[in-house]
Structure formats: structure tokens, C-alpha cells
Structure to design on (1208 residues):
């Protein structure tokens, strides 16, 4: 019986899940609603009515019946599906679902108000004369005793000229025996007969705890145009004697309904005494009708122990397709076969056989795992099904128009994921409707279509599942978010500077953050996006935000396809092994002993790792988990606790206290910041070096939770394994640093690390690591902007690496030696329909002629407004260099300086000087060129701390006729400016400079009445838009890239005119 | 002890030694007695959790019985054993110094727990069983695996 019930409930729930969507479509289409759709809903209600009648779930049956009545009126065009009708129906189906979730307590549910509302609704659409028929019963005689039916149903049967039969039926024997199930039975009945009532012999089937062997007699009252013989066929060929006609064209109905007969609708209108005594067992769904609301609130539900238990069993069953089961059976068979082979191989000690069996078992295991995983997969549609309703209700409340688009219902994910996704996705969807999308007037004023677009999409991508929630609303304003976070004290003002736009947008995930100025009852229920994030983290999901102000926001969630088996990296720390989920790992690196002091620094009380342009907080496994570091005692197996390291640990921060500068970091003045940074680097470094004195290499995993990345120092890396996740016991559940445990190949247990939990345990919680780390990252970023430049490497003679600044090279052409044409001491080649002058470094330096080389290339750049080619040889490479440029040692005409790249000296060529040397006439000729002429006599102030860039810019400005005064920092530039107050026409300044940076210089110029009107151009090696806001605030109107000669010159020309 | 005392008239108990004292627990609850085996330490775990171990594919939380009863700590010697006890669908390994034998508990000989005992120990006992010269403390399995809600 339990199995039958379970099966029925599973079926019913599946149908109920789709009904909501159907009802919403029906509402949308109104009077023109698709009859097929109404029929579909009606049919589900009908089947639920039948099944629940059979199981004695009277409350469910009553409700399904009334819903059916209303739907039938809709189908026969007696009623138009409007919002009110659909609200009631949605409510009814919600209630049905709740009751079916917990059939054991459904009988205690009190749906009086809802039933009354539905009845009132139905009767309001009936003509006056028929109104009474809703509440009246008609009695029909049968050989098995009188049968009472609602008059409205009997009337309808008479109208349609159908007959009513009473069929004795035994579900256990007649259905189950034939391999069907109850829901499908009632479903199939629908096509040919209408089920009016379902009478169960309650003395036999009184409770739900009966065993299967007993017959389950059932009397079905059906209305159908069919004849007895056909009906018998419909009911699995039962004996004709079990079909009793009650009413039909030939059988006149009993005329007058007797007045003393109790109206059946009593059950609908008055709560049964038992129902009153025992209030509803489950939470009522959202009440849409006012009456329903009050009565449901009155009956405050509290789940009983029984309810809990039955709920648990409902959740623990899973529907699996027969195909998968068959696959599993086959694989099991294969496995048995392989085991037998294995035994033989072992018994015979046959190496060859053994290895083939090994291969076979390997394959079967993989397949087995795959198929078993598939049984756990559920379609996303299960979660998405609720969303049209959620969005509809919410948008009605908020008075917004929302068009919800759902894509990818068929995408299947692990059952656990599907269940865990429901809440976070709902929350994000509500957020999108509440905060993301604008109201209709707002949208109109912005020129957007009045209907807000909301899209939720699931799809597979690169072994992961992606769920996107996208709206075309306001978008996230990064600055407003940052301001708000600062106001709420969640982050410090200083750290905002170093944050990129995605960083700022990710602030919404901080605990205690809420974007809406006023917390509404829609999304602001004390839980925020931080809870969403935490939930997703727990599922192994990562969230990304893509948002454009005014255009909308897209949240993208990346999820693993399954949770039960995850590919993980096994690491060990002090003899203990741990598993880190592969999805959390960005990269692995190993710091060689000599790198340790260079790459690890202590900032505040935290170690950080410098990795390219990033600064990542470093978490030492041993510290965060409280594992005592040990060392191998020489000459024995013993390991001793390494006390020395602990002592050094304590010493490091202490050293800082002696340094007042570093103890007071950065009051946002560049001067202090720089000093603090230096102090930070210098002071603890002694500590680190001492502490690492005996240390060998450090293995580091860069891990990420999606929004937070950090470095995790571990002992050693081992293999990557697919580990089976097993939950930790109740006593250990509170340890968020572990997400479970797994059993390794050798039978020992390893803990699986929870990367998000570990970081919060270590205190690294802010969005971009610790605030100080973010600050340092900003400075690292600035260092990058200042010192890193791109070079195009080529060779002059084979052993003579040379370079040109990449920005100055327009194209690279591979040529053959014979393409070069000589004319006196000048060279040209045919190029793009013209003649391209060629120069070589040897022309000036006199060393290393390459003209006969077969690896000839021409680097085309523009000098004095003309294209010129520089001859070089392969290999050609583009490299990023941070090394300083030496402008003295190798300085000579044509060579601007040298730098070291990969331990070799690289000469940096200067195209202007080369060209001048070979074609001294060009500059005189350029005199006619207005563009080159323009700078004549105009004084430009140039502040730039990098000697190389300063020299480069100065040179090309001077070549264009400008008179350049240059200064190596802002302070020097300022005094120079005061000196030449009236002469300077344009100021060009770098951003990051010692003493006084570009922003500060600009502010000073703007705030002094003598200089306030001067045009200022800021130059960087890359356009970083994070600084734009600050640049504007300091009074910088123009931004240029340092070596983009043409652009910078054009800008200077425009500003100086 | 009141009428709801779960100890029956004659009940089989598993007796074990813990920090020099004798203790016993309803033998029906003890699914098996195994050697300690290889434990994986769980850093950050409550004090009484010695580690976790694999028991035929299942993760078992190993509890130091002495630490749990607040009477000391179990030294893992060759005699030490784990009593595998299931509680609320979860398996625990109850680490004890030495398992003695299964005894027939005579309900009549069980005396109330003396109030002089430490509350942390007293609250986890059903009573004291006096047999011969020995005193055996009978553990209350219901209370034994009730953990504080918050950590």
C-alpha cells in the first residue's frame, strides 16, 4: 500500500509541477485560452481526484473535485480565466501539492475557506436556477446501496446524454497485477469516461498501513457514453456482473431530490469537526484570496512527528528510467564476469590475463560510475517550474511588467544540486524583479520597452553547468556600491581605490550589504546576497556578475555537474592528506628557496604572495588548522615539533612595532604610502628570511571561491583523484573548513577542504582578500603601469638582440634579400605600391651587416610623417619587460639604450636617430610639413619619473618643434612650473611618481589661480579606466598612452593652439 | 531510577575499562568491537573527537570516551578498542582503554549515581552497578551522543 501511494504521489507531484505554468499561460490568453491546455490541467485534477479517493485522502479528493468543477466551467466557456479565477486555482493546486507532500497529515488540513471560495466562484457563474445544484446531492440506487452524487454532475451527464455506471474494481488485483499504476489508470480513464466519485470500502482500506495481499475493493462511479462491454475492456476486462448501470438514456433518473438529504457540499462549506479539532499539519501556501488568508492564518500549523517522517520518505525516493536500470544490470553482469576472470588470473598467476582484467574492470567501473551518476540527475525544469509564478506574483505586487524567459529546462543536474539551487535562484530572481528591473514609467523615461526582460537560462559548458539570471534593468552601479559599503563600514575608503569594477560589484556578496536604500518586504528579509553566495559556495558553485549601468545585470553561476564524486587534488601537510576540489584550484606553483623571500611578504599580520600583478593573501595550512609544523629528526624516523618556526612567527610582527611608519600605514598620501610599502617590504623581510632560513621550497595552490582567490601553502602535492564525497558526522558538521571526507585508494580517510570555509576561518573574508592586500594590489598595479613596457625583440647580427618599443612599430614584413634595392648608400623596397626607404642598425653603428641573411624582416614604423623600414633578422618576439633601461652604457646615435632580457643585453634602437643619420635631409624637408612644424616655440612641461619614457617623450616632442622642460617627479615639475609660470602652455604628467604623484600635481595646478587654466594630459603605459574617476576629480581632462606618439602629439597640438 | 528506566531486569552489557574505572553500556547498541586502526585527525574538531576512520566504506567519528566523560584521556595502547555504536543513523567509534566482556546486568544491583560525582559524568550515567567487589558505571546511551547545539 505504501508503495502504491508513493507511486501515486510521485506521479501526481510531477503533474502538479507543470500545472502552474499551464495555469499562468491560460491566464495570459484569457478568453482565447487553449482548450487543450485547460483539458490538460483538468485531466490532472481528475486523476488526482480518483487516486486520492482510492487512498481515502478525502480532503485532497474534495479539493481536486472543486478545482475540476471550476476548470470544467472554464473549458465549456461558462467562465473566463481571469486573474481572480487563476489565483484561486493556483492556490488550490498549491494546497494539493502541500497535502500530497505529506499525505499522512493531509486529512487534518483545513481547506474550508479555499473550498468555499472555489464554490462561490463556480456558483457565481451559474445561472440562478442552477446555483442550488452545486450544493445539492442526488441519490441514485444501485445493487450495492444508494450512491450520492452532486446534482450538478448528474445534470451534466443527463445533458450530455451519457450514462452513469458503478464499477466494482480491485486496484491491487486489476491494476497492479497488470503492471500499471494508479495515477496512470485514472489518467487513461479520462479519455473515455468521467470519474464522478470513488467510493472506498473504508472498513478495509481505512488507513494507509495495509499490506498488499489484501484486496483493495473500490467502487468507481463513472459517466460515459460507452456501453457495458466496452467499459469492461476499459477496466482490464472485468466481469460484466461488476458493472452496474445507475443512470442512462434508457434509465430515467429518480425524479425529485429529497429535501431531507444532506447536501454533499456540506463537506465543502463546513469544516468537519475533526478538522477543527486538529489544525492543519502543513504550512499553507501563499494565500491570494482574502478569505483563505484569514482562515489559514487562524490555523497555525505545526508539523507533527508523523508529518516529518512521511516527508523524509517522500524526499528520499527517486524516479529512475528503466533504461538506466537496464544499463546498470548489464554492467553488474560484466562486473561479475570480470571478477571471475580476476580470480582465475590470480589463481594461475597469469600476468598477462591479470593486466587485461585490470583494464576491463577499470572500464566497467568508469561506466558504472557514469550510469549511477545519471540516476542522480534531475532536470532543471524542476526548479524553474516555480519561477513563472514567483515572478508573476512579485511583479503584480510591485506593479512592474516582467517578461520571464526560461531556457534550458532539460539541463540535468545532480539531485542535491537541484534541491540546493532552488532557494538561491529564487532569491536572485526576486532581487532581479525587485531591485534590478525598473518600473514602467522609469523604463519609458529611459527609452526602454515598458516590459522588463528577465531571462533564466541553464546550459552545459565545458564540463560544468551554467545558470544565468539576466535582466535588462538598472545594472549595478559600482561606485554607488562602493560608497554604500564604505558608509556601512564594511570596507575602508582607502581600499576602494584599488578595486576594479568587478570587485566593486562583488561587494553585494558581503555580509550586511543590501543595495536597496530601503529594505523592502520582497527581497530584504534579513537575508542578502551573502546568504545566496554561501549557499552556492556550499554547492561548489561560483558566481560571476556582469553588469552594465543602465543596461542590466547578469549573474552567472557555474556549477559542477555532480556533487557526489568530485575530481580533487590530494595534498599533504605534515603527513596528513587532504583533498582540494579541482574546481577551486586556479593554479599550482612552487617557490624555490631563493624565491621565497622575494615572493612572500608580510603585510600587517598577514602573509601575502606576489604573483605577477596580483597580491594574494597567503594561508598556511598549518596555521589555520592548528597543525604543528614538524621536522624530520636526522637519522631517525621521528618527527619533532619545529619550535623554531613558531618563535620566528611571533617575532615577525614584533619587528614591525619598532617601525612607526609601517605601523601607521597610508593615510592616502602617496608619500606615506610609498614609504609604508617600502617599510612593509623591508622590515618583515628580515623576519621572513630568518624564518625561512632552514625552509626549503614552498608548494602553493592558488585557490578561488569564485569571488575570492587566495594562496594556500601546503606541504606537498600528490595525484588528482576522483573522490567520493562522504558527509562528516554530526559532531563535526560545524567545521566549515571541511566539506566532507573521502576514502583514498589505500583505505585511509582524507578530509575534503571547503575553500570558502577555510578562508573565513583564516579571517580572509573581504572580497579581494584583506583590505591591506587590496591596497598593495593597487600599488602593484600601479607599479605595473609605471615600469612594464612592451618591446619588439629582433636580431641585428645573429648574436645581437635588438628591440624597438612595440608601440612604435606598425607592421612586420618578412622579405627576401633580393627585394632590397640599392641606390648609392640608400636602400628601398617595393611596398604597397610605393617605395619604402630601408635603414639598418649597421648603417649607424657600422657593425653586423645582415643584408644577405635569409631570415630578413622589415619593421615598419613612421618617422617624421613617413613610413620607414628597419632591417632585422628572425627570430622576432614580443616581450614584456620590467627591467630598467640603461641610457648611458651603450648610448650612441641610433641606439637609445640597453636593457637586460633573459640574461642578455638587448639594444634598443631609435628609429628617429637612425633615419636622421641615413637621411639627414628629411628633417629639413619635414619643415614644410605643418604637422611637424606646429610645435614651434610652444613650451611643454613634462613630468615623468621613468628615465626611459621621459627621454622618449621629450625626444619626439622636441622633434615636433616643442620646447620641453622635463622633471623626474611632481614636486620638481611644480617648482619648474612656478619658475616658468607664463611660458608653459601644456602640462604632460605621469600618474605614479615619487614625492608628488600625477593626481596631486594636477590638483595643485587646478587649485592655484595662476595655473588653474592650464591643460593637463596624463600619460600611462596602458589606459586603466579605474583611475579615470580619480583623474577627473583631480582636474585631468586628457589621458594618453605614453608611446602612442601620434595621438599624444595630436592632443598636445590641439591643446596648445 | 524511575519506571521508564531503559534497563531491563536482566540485560546484557558490554563492560570496558576507562582511566582505571569500569564502565558498561547496553550490549545491544554495540554493533561490533574493533581495533583502533588508522585514524585521520580532524583539526579544529571538539576535544573528544580523536579522528575519523574508514569502516567498510563508512566514515566513523571516533570519540575518546574518557575525554567525553571528562575523566581523562585514553592512551592508544594495543589493548585499546573502538565500540561501534549507531546513534541516529550515524556511526560512532567509542574509544576505550580495554574491552572486558559482556556481562549480565542485574537490575536489582543498580544503585543511583552518587551526587558527589562531577556533573558532566553524572549526567551521562544511568546508575552504578555493584557486583562482587566491582563497581561499574552504566552509561546512558541516550545522553551519551547528545551534542551541544552550538559550537
Amino acid at each position: 500500500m505504501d508503495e502504491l501511494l508513493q507511486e501515486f504521489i510521485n506521479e501526481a507531484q510531477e503533474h502538479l509541477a507543470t500545472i502552474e505554468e499551464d495555469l499562468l499561460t491560460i491566464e495570459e490568453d484569457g478568453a482565447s485560452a487553449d482548450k487543450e491546455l485547460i483539458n490538460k490541467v483538468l485531466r490532472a485534477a481528475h486523476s488526482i481526484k480518483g487516486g486520492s479517493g482510492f487512498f481515502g485522502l478525502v480532503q485532497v479528493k474534495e479539493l481536486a473535485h472543486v478545482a475540476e468543477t471550476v476548470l470544467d466551467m472554464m473549458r465549456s466557456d461558462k467562465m473566463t480565466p481571469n486573474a481572480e479565477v487563476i489565483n484561486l486555482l493556483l492556490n488550490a493546486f498549491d494546497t494539493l501539492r502541500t497535502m500530497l507532500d505529506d499525505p499522512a497529515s493531509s486529512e487534518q488540513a483545513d481547506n474550508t475557506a479555499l473550498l468555499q471560495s472555489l464554490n462561490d466562484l463556480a456558483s457565481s457563474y451559474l445561472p440562478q436556477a442552477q446555483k442550488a445544484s452545486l450544493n445539492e446531492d442526488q441519490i441514485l440506487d444501485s445493487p450495492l446501496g444508494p450512491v450520492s452524487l452532486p446534482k450538478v454532475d448528474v445534470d451534466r451527464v443527463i445533458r450530455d446524454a451519457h450514462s452513469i455506471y458503478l464499477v466494482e474494481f480491485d486496484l491491487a488485483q486489476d491494476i497492479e497485477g497488470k503492471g500499471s499504476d494508479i495515477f496512470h489508470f485514472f489518467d487513461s480513464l479520462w479519455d473515455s469516461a468521467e470519474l464522478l466519485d470513488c467510493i472506498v470500502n473504508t472498513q478495509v482500506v481505512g488507513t494507509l498501513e495495509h499490506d498488499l495481499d489484501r484486496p483493495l475493493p473500490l467502487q468507481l462511479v463513472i459517466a460515459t457514453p460507452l456501453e457495458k462491454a466496452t467499459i469492461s475492456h476499459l477496466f482490464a476486462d472485468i466481469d460484466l456482473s461488476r458493472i452496474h448501470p445507475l443512470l442512462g438514456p434508457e434509465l430515467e433518473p429518480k425524479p425529485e431530490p429529497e429535501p431531507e438529504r444532506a447536501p454533499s457540499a456540506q463537506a465543502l462549506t463546513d469544516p468537519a469537526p475533526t478538522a477543527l479539532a486538529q489544525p492543519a499539519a502543513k504550512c499553507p501556501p501563499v494565500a491570494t484570496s482574502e478569505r483563505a488568508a484569514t482562515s489559514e492564518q487562524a490555523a497555525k500549523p505545526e508539523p507533527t512527528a508523523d508529518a516529518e517522517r512521511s516527508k523524509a520518505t517522500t524526499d528520499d525516493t527517486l524516479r529512475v528510467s528503466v533504461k538506466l536500470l537496464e544499463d546498470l544490470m548489464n554492467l553488474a553482469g560484466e562486473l561479475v564476469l570480470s571478477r571471475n576472470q580476476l580470480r582465475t588470473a590470480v589463481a594461475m598467476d597469469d600476468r598477462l590475463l591479470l593486466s587485461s582484467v585490470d583494464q576491463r574492470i577499470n572500464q566497467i567501473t568508469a561506466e558504472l560510475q557514469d550510469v549511477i551518476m545519471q540516476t542522480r540527475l534531475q532536470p532543471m525544469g524542476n526548479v524553474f517550474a516555480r519561477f513563472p509564478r514567483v515572478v508573476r506574483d512579485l511583479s503584480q505586487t510591485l506593479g512592474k511588467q516582467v517578461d520571464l524567459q526560461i531556457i534550458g529546462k532539460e539541463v540535468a543536474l545532480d539531485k542535491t544540486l537541484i534541491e540546493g539551487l532552488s532557494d538561491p535562484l529564487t532569491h536572485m530572481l526576486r532581487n532581479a524583479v525587485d531591485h534590478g528591473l525598473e518600473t514602467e514609467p522609469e523604463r519609458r523615461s529611459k527609452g526602454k520597452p515598458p516590459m522588463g526582460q528577465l531571462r533564466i537560462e541553464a546550459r552545459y559548458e565545458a564540463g560544468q553547468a551554467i545558470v544565468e539570471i539576466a535582466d535588462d534593468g538598472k545594472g549595478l552601479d559600482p561606485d554607488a556600491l562602493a560608497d554604500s559599503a564604505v558608509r556601512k563600514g564594511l570596507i575602508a575608503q582607502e581600499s576602494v581605490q584599488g578595486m576594479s569594477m568587478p570587485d566593486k560589484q562583488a561587494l553585494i556578496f558581503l555580509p550586511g550589504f543590501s543595495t536597496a536604500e530601503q529594505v523592502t518586504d520582497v527581497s530584504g528579509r534579513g537575508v542578502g546576497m551573502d546568504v545566496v553566495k554561501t549557499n552556492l559556495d556550499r554547492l561548489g558553485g561560483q558566481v560571476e556578475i556582469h553588469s552594465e549601468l543602465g543596461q542590466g545585470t547578469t549573474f552567472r553561476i557555474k556549477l559542477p555537474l555532480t556533487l557526489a564524486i568530485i575530481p580533487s587534488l590530494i595534498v599533504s601537510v605534515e603527513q596528513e592528506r587532504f583533498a582540494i576540489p579541482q574546481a577551486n584550484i586556479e593554479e599550482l606553483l612552487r617557490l624555490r628557496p631563493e624565491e621565497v623571500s622575494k615572493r612572500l611578504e608580510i603585510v600587517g599580520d598577514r602573509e601575502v604572495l606576489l604573483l605577477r600583478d596580483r597580491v594574494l593573501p597567503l594561508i598556511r595550512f598549518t596555521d589555520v588548522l592548528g597543525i604543528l609544523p614538524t621536522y624530520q629528526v636526522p637519522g631517525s624516523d621521528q618527527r619533532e615539533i619545529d619550535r623554531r618556526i613558531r618563535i620566528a612567527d611571533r617575532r615577525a610582527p614584533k619587528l614591525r612595532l619598532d617601525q612607526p611608519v609601517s605601523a601607521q600605514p597610508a593615510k592616502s598620501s602617496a608619500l606615506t604610502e610609498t614609504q609604508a610599502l617600502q617599510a612593509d617590504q623591508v622590515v618583515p623581510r628580515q623576519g621572513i628570511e630568518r624564518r625561512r632560513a632552514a625552509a626549503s621550497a614552498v608548494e602553493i595552490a592558488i585557490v578561488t571561491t569564485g569571488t575570492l582567490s587566495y594562496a594556500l601553502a601546503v606541504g606537498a602535492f600528490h595525484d588528482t583523484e576522483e573522490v567520493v564525497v562522504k558527509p562528516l558526522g554530526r559532531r563535526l558538521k560545524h567545521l566549515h573548513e571541511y566539506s566532507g571526507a573521502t576514502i583514498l585508494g589505500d583505505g585511509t580517510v582524507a578530509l575534503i577542504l571547503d575553500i570558502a570555509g577555510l578562508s573565513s576561518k583564516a579571517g580572509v573574508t573581504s572580497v579581494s582578500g584583506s583590505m591591506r592586500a587590496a591596497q598593495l594590489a593597487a600599488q602593484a598595479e600601479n607599479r605595473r603601469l609605471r615600469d612594464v613596457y612592451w618591446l619588439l625583440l629582433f636580431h641585428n647580427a645573429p648574436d645581437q638582440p635588438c628591440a624597438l618599443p612595440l608601440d612604435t612599430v606598425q607592421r612586420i614584413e618578412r622579405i627576401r634579400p633580393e627585394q632590397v634595392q640599392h641606390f648609392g648608400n640608400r636602400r628601398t623596397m617595393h611596398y604597397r605600391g610605393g617605395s619604402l626607404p630601408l635603414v639598418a642598425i649597421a648603417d649607424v653603428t657600422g657593425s653586423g651587416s645582415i643584408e644577405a641573411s635569409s631570415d630578413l624582416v622589415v619593421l615598419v614604423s613612421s618617422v617624421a610623417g613617413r613610413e620607414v623600414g628597419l632591417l632585422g633578422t628572425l627570430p622576432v618576439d614580443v616581450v614584456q619587460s620590467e627591467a630598467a633601461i640603461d641610457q648611458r652604457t651603450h648610448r650612441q646615435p641610433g641606439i637609445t639604450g640597453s636593457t637586460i632580457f633573459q640574461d642578455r643585453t638587448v639594444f634598443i634602437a631609435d628609429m628617429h636617430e637612425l633615419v636622421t643619420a641615413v637621411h639627414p635631409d628629411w628633417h629639413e624637408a619635414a619643415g614644410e610639413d605643418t604637422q611637424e612644424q606646429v610645435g614651434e616655440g610652444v613650451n611643454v612641461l613634462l613630468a615623468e619619473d621613468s628615465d626611459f619614457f621621459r627621454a622618449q617623450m621629450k625626444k619626439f616632442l622636441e622633434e615636433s618643434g616643442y620646447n620641453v622642460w622635463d622633471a623626474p617627479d611632481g614636486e620638481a615639475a611644480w617648482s619648474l612650473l612656478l619658475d616658468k609660470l607664463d611660458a608653459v602652455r601644456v602640462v604632460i604628467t605621469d600618474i605614479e611618481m615619487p614625492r608628488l604623484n600625477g593626481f596631486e600635481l594636477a590638483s595643485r595646478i587646478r587649485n592655484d589661480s595662476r595655473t588653474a587654466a592650464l591643460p593637463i594630459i596624463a600619460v600611462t603605459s596602458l589606459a586603466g579606466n579605474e583611475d579615470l574617476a580619480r583623474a577627473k576629480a583631480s582636474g585631468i581632462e586628457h589621458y594618453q598612452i605614453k608611446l602612442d606618439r601620434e595621438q599624444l602629439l595630436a592632443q598636445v597640438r590641439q591643446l596648445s593652439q | 531510577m524511575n519506571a521508564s528506566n531503559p534497563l531491563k531486569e536482566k540485560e546484557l552489557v558490554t563492560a570496558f575499562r576507562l582511566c582505571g574505572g569500569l564502565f558498561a553500556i547496553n550490549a545491544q547498541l554495540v554493533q561490533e568491537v574493533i581495533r583502533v586502526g588508522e585514524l585521520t585527525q580532524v583539526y579544529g574538531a571538539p576535544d573528544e573527537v580523536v579522528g575519523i576512520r574508514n569502516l567498510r566504506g563508512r566514515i566513523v567519528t571516533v570519540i575518546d570516551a574518557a575525554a567525553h566523560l571528562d575523566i581523562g584521556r585514553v592512551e592508544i595502547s594495543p589493548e585499546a578498542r573502538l565500540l561501534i555504536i549507531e546513534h541516529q543513523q550515524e556511526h560512532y567509534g567509542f574509544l576505550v582503554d580495554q574491552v572486558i566482556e559482556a556481562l549480565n546486568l542485574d537490575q536489582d544491583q543498580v544503585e543511583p549515581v552518587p551526587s558527589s560525582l562531577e556533573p558532566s559524568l553524572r549526567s551521562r550515567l544511568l546508575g552504578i552497578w555493584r557486583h562482587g567487589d566491582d563497581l561499574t558505571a552504566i552509561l546512558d546511551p541516550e545522553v551519551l551522543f547528545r551534542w551541544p547545539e552550538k559550537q
Summary: The radius of gyration of chain B is 15 Å. The longest strand of chain B covers residues 10-18. DSSP finds three helices and eleven strands in chain B.
